[in-house]
Amino acid sequence: MDVLVHCADDVGESPVWDDRHDCLRWVDLLPGTVRSVTPSGVLTQVRAGCAVGAIGLTGTDDLIAAVRAGFARISPAGLQMVAEVEADAPHRRMNDGKCDPWGGFVAGTMLDDQSAATGTMYRLAADGAVDTGETGLTCPNGLDWAPDGTTFYHADSPTGRIDVCDLDPDTHLPVARRPFVAVDPPGVPDGLTLDTDGCVWVALWDGGRVCRYTPDGRLDRVVELPVSRPTSCAFGGSGWRTLFVTSARHGLSERELAEQPLAGAVFAVPDLAQGLPAHRFRERARSSSALHRG
What we know:
By secondary structure, the chain is mainly beta. It has one helix and 26 strands. The protein starts with a strand and ends with a strand.
């Protein structure tokens, strides 16, 4: 295991490997800093000016993002809103998200203090329309699709469980949610990714490890980390054979930070399995009928 970059993120999240530029991209969520780093260690960053829960790749050098007020594009020049979501709710924000196999971008909302299960899953389509999906979420995290695109995995962290869902053929949003695995403590499921075998790799917040579950829900691999709050993971690098893991310093005491000097770093763990290229947002011209569908 290597430390790819020690950037002391408050809450590092949403790692995604950009194969066009041979770099890892991710966010420091609450400050809204979008970072990228090459394998040789060249680090660049863009400040979005608001909380950024997740990013996804596009067909250009811009990124699609789930920000506090909805969906946005982020470029070196800054942030441009694409579609507002729950923008009139000041204590709500978008959290984890990812591009899907059909060229859309899926992300969920949550209360800042996670005090109630009032979050909703949304999907930004290529034409700029927004579809509304599952409701009753507290802290939507860890989402990805099976390699064949037929099922969707998702963790609402406070449940301590990863669920599996079918997909609506019209909206491509998850439906028929059901338990996949209950994660053994310590820790709760945060960000996750799938490998080419359909196994689920999940970072455990306050668990200090990344676990792999086979498609039948069996725990068969554990990667211990030198930090207690890994946040998410993604495959990338040559052949998508390196697992990149983001982490957080948020909420740790001075004593805990002294014991975990690498908290907030990004780690690289080679040759655990093979991942898949990240999906990209396939934007097309917005039609006159594009609207919020709920």
